[in-house]
Amino acid sequence: MADAATTPLLTSHEAKPAKALSIDDAIETYIGATGARQLLTAMLLAFAWAFEAQQVFMPVFTDAEPTWHCTGVAAGDPGSFCSLAAASASSSACALPPGTFSMLHACATEREDDAAGGAGGGGGGVFATLRSMWERRWALRRLAAIMTASFGVGMVYYGMPLNVGNLGSNLYLSVTYNALAEFPSSVLSWLLMGRINRRSSVVALTAAAGVCSLACVAIPEGTGGRMAAEVLSFFATCTAFNIILMYSIELFPTSVRNSAVGMVRQALVLGGVRSYWSFGVFGLTVGCLGLFVTCLPETKGRRLSDTMEDEEEAAAVLSGG
């Protein structure tokens, strides 16, 4: 009774402010102490980036010039040209008769690279590709159109999973559904690539993603319909993501393909730099920017070109037919 009588009824209004948590305190409070589970999670997350890192090493092989192998005797000529090529260091392999070397088509690729990179350079790199495309406006238009569409797809692809907290439903369930949507999207991409045109597929998928994303604005929060619309939008975006990468490979010839595809992928990643947008912004962006694909030619069933001249000849044949 004495303790109860001496205890003040009201606490002081000048209470001391709570001490700010340090980084270590926050990690221990919300994640827990470092243990086997946290270590395993960190290893799995780091392992996922190993597949992304492979693309850094791909240009080392794709930019390498093929080795010339002497076949010995040219067709219809009893003399060997291997000793002639070895004896004359200043002679060009492109000047030898056909059939002397096994990779004769590399002469055309070499001339194309020299024209793109200058007389003293090897013709590789992004700047040489941009210079070559600037001289051919059709290639520049293709690159601008596919990069614009890729920017919209990348914004939704990287931003939609970060925006699931605004659905008003179970956060863990929403993240799980988005992760599971990646698997059927890969199968659908494979089916669409074999049966439907590239251009029509990308336009239809980006339009569907935009409509479903805009539906998330109209559907009330916390309902199953809003979660379903978000998952469908992300599913269509994942499929468009896969098809755009394959489409960009078929749009450009071998001499500039590696750098062009690299810039398309940079546009995809650049779209996800600032991805904290609303579902309405996602829907309008992916739906409108996806229409730029209509400016591109259809590549389904076409032969891949090796040089810019080959691509121009193929385009002229298609337009003339």
Automatic annotation (TrEMBL):
The keyword Protease does not apply. InterPro entries: MFS_trans_sf (IPR036259). Keywords: Membrane, Phosphate transport, Symport, Transmembrane, Transmembrane helix, Transport. GO terms for cellular component: membrane. Gene3D superfamilies: MFS general substrate transporter like domains. It is a multi-pass membrane protein. This is Major facilitator superfamily (MFS) profile domain-containing protein.
